[in-house]
Amino acid sequence: MDIKKLRLVLNSTGEAGNLSQLNLAPNLLETFIPGYGLISKFILDTFGFDIGVVVSAGLLIFATGTAWKYVSKLAWTFLNQYLVASVYFDDHDDLFPSVLAWIADQRVGRVARRLKAVSKQGSSPEEDDVGEMDNDPAELFHFGRWAAKVPPKYEPYFGSYQFTFGYRFFIFERGKREKSSSPWQPRSEEEHIVLKTFGWSTAPIKALLVHIKQWSIERENSITVIKRPQSKEIRRYQGAWSRVTSRPSRPMETVVLDPEQKEALIADVNEYLSPASPRWYAVRGIPYRRGYLFYGPPGTGKSSLSFALAGLFGLNIFVISLLEPTLTESDLMQLFNNLPRRCIVLLEDIDTAGLAREEEKLDDTTKDKKEEKDEKFSAADLAKELRKTAGGGRRGGGGGGGSDDLKPGISLSGLLNAIDGVASHEGRVLVMTTNHPEKLDSALIRPGRVDMQVAFTLATKHQTREIFSRMYSTDHDTGPKKSVIGITVTSNGHSPNGTAGKLLTNNHKIGEAYTRDEIEELADKFADLVPEGKFSPAEVQNFLITRKKDPQRAMDDVALWRDQLLEAKERKSKIVFVQ
């Protein structure tokens, strides 16, 4: 049958009428598809098939999909504006990594098809991963092979993800946008996170964030976070602090200090951080600030006590170096103003920042010695020169006045204004450490700025005994306290039978242990052999670390180590005296 006659027959029926309605006019199709009439005629004459129906159906489907996409986008915009509550986070906010880690730990993060792998080269495996690995203590440890077994962490990539929490529907969106930077700075991007839920109230999202914060705290309850100022370019227009690292919290009992001093310090900090303290200070018109000065010889545990306090009270540590060449007084004020309500601000080696007494009177002998020292280029002088070079003679601008403004970097008046000026931050715990408290200006350490001074001395007999006992005690004190004898290296570094990678002890079998009483007895003998007030706790601890698996070896070597170190100290003191 002729195709044209068939079409005439079909057009005369109702079904064909519907088909003809679907088949758009050739002139209309020619408008959107140039050459359509010629192509359709060629196909019709050659194959006897009219493509008008197929093309018309395709255009109709395309138009329907486009309309649906437009209508759905319009509807979602309306819902998102009037019926959806949202909370936003920038990547420099403390909640950003917590929310990201929580999402990655949930089912939505585990089953997501778009993931971002996070693997830091050169970093040590995390504790939860290390616990799953088996390592033979008798084998030589190869860090590369061990760390290669740690799988990378995964987190949701940029996009939108849906999940439920507490029988409520949430939407998690991760994206990035261009940072608002100055014209002379390179363009960069920052990430952001959005949490959404249907409704007019953000209360469900706030409840979810409370849960995430508690989850994060429980996950890192034994971790102390350390933050430092961001780079000069970033801290101008973003958060002033960045998280640089985190480390396991140091137990307070591992800090070797006079027990009475330690108890007094803990009680004072605990009283200050009490929730009722801010009102007590406010009612009496006293600024809600607390400052401490830890002073003593190097290696006596000043910084260690700061980290132990942070772990004990669950605080983060914010470390500021006043020797940073790019740090100005305005930067210092901004850093203090961007501190959280409760934290520890650590200013280490405050005496090296050039904040010496301004009205110090020197006799002739001291002046002569000072002139000789001025001929040498010290670390503080180098830092000052770097400040001049980096800042081009720029003056600090945060509260310095008078002659202090003529000095580059941080002046004494600028530091004092940041610590307890009119606009200074309240609620923080300020800790300053120094090896030479006599070099500090009296205005810096007066009451109100430094409320308690803690003196650190060279190791006493009690401290030496405590270091030894702690070094060889077990991690878990269950019943009689034991110390397992580990593995030490023989003279050739291998076992007597030549097995590669096997290391044996000199005097004991693997797994042999000392009882608690035996360790205490050795600790008493060790403390008797180490002279009191001659060595720092760090020196004693360093000696024991090299023999941490064999207390008897430490007892055998302590006399030789003591005599050699005393002799070296005596030679050094003579050289300094001659100079």
Tell me the total number of β-strands: 15
Radius of gyration from the CA trace? 36 Å
Roughly what is the average pLDDT, rounded to an integer?
A: 74
pLDDT < 50 stretches = 12-22, 121-132, 356-365, 389-407, 476-511
Count of individual domains = 4
Q: Oligomer, anyone?
A: single chain
Helices, by number, come to 21
Topology:
Elements: H1 3-11, H2 14-22, H3 26-32, H4 36-47, H5 52-82, E1 84-90, H6 95-105, H7 107-110, E2 115-118, H8 127-130, H9 143-148, E3 153-156, E4 159-164, E5 169-178, E6 189-198, H10 203-219, E7 223-229, E8 241-248, H11 259-273, H12 277-283, E9 290-295, H13 302-313, E10 317-320, H14 329-337, E11 344-347, H15 364-374, H16 379-391, H17 412-420, E12 429-434, E13 452-455, H18 461-471, E14 483-484, E15 513-514, H19 516-529, H20 537-545, H21 551-578
Parallel strand pairs: 7-10, 9-12, 9-13, 10-11, 11-12
Antiparallel strand pairs: 1-6, 2-3, 4-5, 5-6, 7-8, 14-15
Helix pairs in contact: 1-2, 6-10, 14-17, 18-19, 18-20, 19-21
